Amino acid sequence: MKSTFSKKNYIILTVGTLLIALGYLLMIGGGSEDPNVFSESIFDFQRITLAPMVCLAGFVTIVIAIMWRPKNVSTENVK
Question: Which of 45, 55, 59, 48 is nearest to 23 (CA)?
Answer without folding.
Answer: 55
